[in-house]
Design goal:
The complex is a heterodimer of chains A (175) and B (257). With 175 residues, chain A is an all-alpha fold. Chain A has nine helices and no strands. Chain B has two domains: 53 residues, no CATH class; 143 residues, MucB/RseB, C-terminal domain (Phosphorylase Kinase, domain 1, 2-Layer Sandwich), CATH 3.30.200.100. In chain B, a hairpin with a 2-residue loop joins strand 5 and strand 6. The longest helix of chain B has 40 residues. Classes of the chains: A mainly alpha (175), B alpha+beta (257).
Chain lengths: 175, 257
């Protein structure tokens, strides 16, 4: 268990970050990470050789997906404007903070599969092949999703860049 | 020699700094000559920086107590003895109290043969497969011990099927109680964490040999069969037919050579 502690513990902050960016609700996200860690503990000796980080992200991602499926059948319960800035910590400068919040709101508009790829690759620094393992898809699909995610996010950013103040209103009314 | 053409994938790998240095330089040269593409790529790189900056504070927050790994490990070591026995006791009490009278008729008419076996396998699956604390009693790493144990209790040599070619790896197993005596349960999971269970026990008089029969109960599906007095049932969270290739593999391996 000692080697597990040494290998898993440093990765918990990144798991939290991924969970929170994916499900956009702090309490839910931490529940997922807790589930993930419990699974990791009980399956530590059954894991295959290979990167512990990719293994943990795989467990976490699968948990998040099954939660998405459950909430999809029950109707979505996390409206996009419910998350507040506290959920994303404090950024240094106010303007930067607004931009950061804004990019997260736009990220949330992407379909889950595109959001997951973008987060794993661009934020969590997983290699394309590790991301493919986590998502259980071929590397080619990772690349095409990544491309679509970036194009779409860019459209969002450019399209609404000069109307930040309208953003919140349009999100609320467009539920 | 003219350079390899630049692909869309190269552009993303450039943003993600995933290219070999020479290729990175080639892409940089290309972008120097193609300002439109360079603008798009700069947009992607800007997104990447913004996302990282926006999400970085989360990773810097102090971890809440629920995410304390040492505590999770500790709880796991402690939990089985107390919680699980309490749960088992509660379950027995409620079955005994509420269901006793109602079950009187049902028990007398309890099914035998393959149907019973399939039900037992489905019940074991429903109880153990969702268990996150201790789905198996003996882990795959101690499979020699597991084989010895269940073979002793079933009073016949039991082989653990190897399902790696089907994408499932052994997690371990345990002995489970059935109304027809002890049965061996083996649990497997695949890379996505979905679990399947193989249950085997000697058959009583009925169905000493029986063809593979599908059966499903709610969203738990499976197949059961018997060969030479030993019954097998494979169940999972799937339609029975989708499990048939795996069941065939179990059956093939279980046959004496």
């Amino acid at each position: 268990m000692k080697d597990m502690l040494l290998q898993v513990e440093p990765l918990i902050p990144a798991l939290r970050r991924y969970a929170r960016a994916l499900v956009r609700n702090g309490a839910n996200a931490d529940d997922l990470v807790q589930d993930c860690l419990e699974r990791a503990v009980s399956r530590w000796y059954q894991r295959r050789d290979g990167d512990v980080r990719a293994w943990l992200f795989t467990i976490l991602h699968n948990l998040a997906i099954s939660q998405f499926r459950q909430s999809a059948t029950r109707g979505r319960h996390v409206p996009i404007d419910e998350t507040n800035e506290d959920d994303f910590g404090e950024a240094a400068a106010q303007e930067r903070k607004i931009m950061c919040q804004d990019v997260l709101n736009k990220l949330a508009k992407l379909p889950e599969d595109q959001r997951a790829v973008l987060l794993l690759v661009a934020v969590e620094d997983l290699s394309y092949s590790d991301a493919a393992k986590v998502l259980n898809i071929p590397v080619g699909t990772v690349m095409s999703r990544l491309s679509r995610a970036r194009e779409r996010l860019q459209q969002e950013i450019e399209g609404i860049a000069d109307k930040v103040s309208n953003n919140v209103v349009s999100l609320r009314s467009g539920k | 020699m003219s350079p390899r053409p630049i692909t869309e994938d190269d552009l993303h790998a450039y943003v993600d700094r995933a290219l070999e240095p020479e290729r990175q330089a080639e892409v940089a040269d290309y972008l120097g000559e193609h300002p439109d593409v360079a603008k798009r790529v700069a947009g992607f790189a800007g997104q990447r920086d913004l996302l990282r900056a926006a999400l970085a504070p989360i990773a810097e927050e102090p971890l809440p107590p629920e995410l304390n790994l040492s505590r999770i490990i500790e709880n796991r070591a402690r939990r089985p003895s107390v919680v699980r026995w309490a749960m088992a006791a509660m379950l027995l009490l409620s079955i005994g109290g509420l269901g006793g009278w109602a079950m009187r008729g049902a028990l007398q008419a309890s099914p035998g043969g393959l149907v019973a076996l399939a039900q037992e396998a489905a019940a074991s699956y429903s109880v153990y497969a969702p268990d996150r604390v201790r789905p198996v009693e003996v882990r795959a790493s101690d499979s020699a011990q597991l084989v010895q144990w269940v073979s002793d209790r079933l009073q016949r040599p039991v082989k653990v099927p190897n399902l790696t070619t089907s994408g499932y790896r052994l997690m371990g197993g345990r002995l489970v109680a059935t109304s027809h005596g002890p049965a061996a349960m083996f649990m497997y999971d695949d890379d996505r964490g979905s679990r399947i269970v193989v249950l085997t026990r000697p058959m009583s008089s009925a169905d000493q040999n029986a063809p593979m029969t599908p059966r499903s109960q709610g969203d738990v599906g499976g197949l059961a069969w018997a060969d030479d007095g030993v019954g097998y049932s494979l169940v999972g969270h799937a339609a029975p037919e989708s499990l048939r290739p795996i069941a065939n593999e179990v059956r093939r391996q279980a046959r004496p050579i």
